[in-house]
Amino acid sequence: MSLEPALQQRPANTSKPKALVVCAHLRPGRDKRRSNYLMQPISGLHVASLVDQAVFDVCLHHEDWHGPLEVADCKGYDLVFLSGLQVDFDRLRQLSFYCRRSGATVVAGGSICTSFPEFASQFFDAVCAGGVDCVPAVVADFLAGSLKRIYRSPIARISSYALDYSILTKSRISPVVHLMEATRGCSFKCSFCVIPSEVGGHASYDFDQLKRTIDNAILSSPRLSFRRLYPIVMLLDNNFSDDRAHMLRVCEYLRSNRRVRGWVALVTQNVLHDRELIRHLAASKCLGLFVGLESFDPDLLRRYRKTQNLSKRHNVIDDIVYSESQGITITYGYLFDPRYQKASDMERQIRAIAENPLIPMPIYISVVAPLAGTETFWNDLDSGRLAPHLRLRDLDGETIAYSQLADRPDALVSFVERIFRRPWTVVGRTGVLLKTVRRLARSGTLNPIRWYFMAVGTLHCFIWSRGTPSQPRSYLAGSDTLDPQYFERPGDLSERDRATYFDPIYLTDETGGPADWLKPYHARRVSITRHRGGSNRDPIEIAGS
Predict the structure, then answer these.
(1) Which segments of the chain have a pLDDT < 50?
(2) How far apart are CA 466 and CA 202, in angstroms?
(3) Residues in a beta bridge with 130
(4) What is the pTM (predicted TM-score) of this model?
(5) What are the extents of the domains in the chain?
(6) Are 493 and 399 in contact (CB under 8 A)?
(7) 376 CB contacts (<8 Å, ≥6 apart)?
(8) How many beta carbons lie within 10 A of that of residue 270, not counting itself?
(9) Which helix (H) or strand (E) segment is 289 a member of?
(10) Which pLDDT tens digit goes with each residue over 161-178?
């Protein structure tokens, strides 16, 4: 059975139309579990807040928090918004099939829709390329019956609108902290990051609007919830420290707001070099900073143009120790690059971190994923380094996405499986626990909340791996296990709809070259690069020539 007949059967609805906003999610373990992880996406909240609740009944569903949206729950909606990361794009397509088949108009956004909107538009009624600020225009055109295929709104252009945190409460999404942004984007140009191509810069939210957002978040939370009784703000900015003046103004407001008990934010590593600033942040109730450290390997940092991490005048370990002595928990992610690092190199690095009593363990670990549309992705594609039959689903930070590797595939897979599923076989639990106790002692605080953040930050990898059991996997692009959702198809599914909505999207063909759909984008990039007199070569190759 084809999807098309359902799209032609949309009866007039005389009652209040219903809108559904879904933050799609495919889990690392390729299973259908759910989690209460505190770093929930806030894109859905922004979209839902921009849909007029005087006109629509609005529902919000987080697949990470609630679990995968069931087929039966896709029915009964007039307008559906879908959002997700690159690795989740196949899930957006699956949900689009079920919602469109039930008569809904489906609008999608996110990274793939922003970087490749023409390609993405074939799976949905409309796509939003860029920020959420185009949602009011989408809604207006939907009501007028004049929906466009593609809507564009620069992510760094922030319009004025109010966030309604009661939507989280109504949707029974209850992280222990208040999630929000004070800014968008980042002015640094790291080559592995999607922000330079998708956002292109940095912008700040209106300060008065941000104050109202914080008040709304606190007052909308359940009366006896932790985030009502002990409000902690988590700023999910790409780089909270990019606009120093705005950052300091926000910090002063958080310090002076008696209801706010503490806050955490995402910043670049160079912030830690400024001891005076660290003291100021600590005095402003800062509980923790997630720092873009990425690696202690200077070659990796240079390769990805992580210039803000390559200071010769500062020692990042000393900076971490000083920050934590002020009561600020430092967390960070850690990257491994299988193109240049052997499994033994990776294990040696993580053991060195575990054995150093001064620094925390990474809060997450990842192998480099060549995110589509980034400078690294295009360079690897041009150089023939991407694995054949590389899929969007393989861009999860656990799957090895390359054909040119520094080590045997089986050696790399063995290490990757252990560090993601059984990290205690790489670094001992006892040693990590002891270093956590020492860090708590050095923090100079008896505040149990600060202790909690410090302990959880170090132990997160162990907690996460125990909570994410995995199906048997190859950890190699093109052959890794797919999620159950790929195979949960209706019995009357046509071959055309199977290919359109359920087969995984490939980035490369059998030779590692660009997939057919990607070729026009690749040709456009090559043309632009030649016109500018640029080079497609890897930065580290250029530096060595």
Answers:
(1) 1, 5-12, 536-545
(2) 37
(3) 153
(4) 0.92
(5) 17-153
(6) no
(7) 191, 192, 304, 368, 370
(8) 19
(9) strand 286-294
(10) 999 999 999 999 999 999
The Cα 147–Cα 135 span in angstroms is 12
How many C-beta neighbours within 10 Å does residue 437 have?
11
pLDDT the model gives residue 454: 83
User: Which of the following CATH numbers is that of domain 17-153: 2.60.40.10, 1.10.760.10, 3.40.50.280, 1.10.10.60?
Assistant: 3.40.50.280
Cα distance between residue 25 and residue 92, in whole Å: 9
DSSP state of 337: -
Q: What is the pLDDT of residues 292-319, one digit of tens each?
A: 999 999 999 999 988 888 888 889 999 9
Non-local (6+) Cβ contacts of 174 within 8 A are: 36, 168, 221, 222, 225, 227
- Rounded to an integer, what distance in angstroms lies between the CA atom of residue 377 and that of residue 350? 26
Dihedral sign for Cα 533, 536, 541, 545, please. negative
- Matching residue, tokens 């055109």: 141
Of 95, 130, 94, the residue nearest 112 (C-alpha): 130
Q: Where are the alpha helices (DSSP H) in 327-428?
A: 343-355, 375-382, 409-421
Q: Please name the residue ranges forming H helices in 102-206.
A: 111-115, 117-120, 135-144, 166-170, 195-198
Separation of alpha carbons 200 and 203, rounded Å:
10
Structure tokens at 82: 């879908």
Q: Residue 259: left if φ>0, alpha if ψ -120 to 50, beta else—which one?
A: alpha
SS3 call for 99: helix
Tokens 């500018």 belong to which residue? Answer: 532
The whole-angstrom separation of Cα 143 and Cα 210 is 30
Nearest to 292 by CA among 261, 252, 255, 265: 265
Q: Which 3 state secondary structure label does DSSP give 155?
A: coil
Alpha helices in 15-131 (DSSP H): 43-49, 63-66, 89-101, 111-115, 117-120
Q: Which tokens in the block code for residue 132?
A: 């959420």
β-bridge partners, 57: 18
DSSP 8-state class, residue 95 = H
Q: Are strands 57-62 and 18-23 parallel, antiparallel or unpaired?
A: parallel
- Are 478 and 392 a contacting pair, CB within 8 Å? no
What is the reported pLDDT for 540?
36
- Would you state the pLDDT for residue 7? 44
pLDDT, position 2: 53
What count of other Cβ atoms lies within 10 Å of the Cβ of residue 388?
15
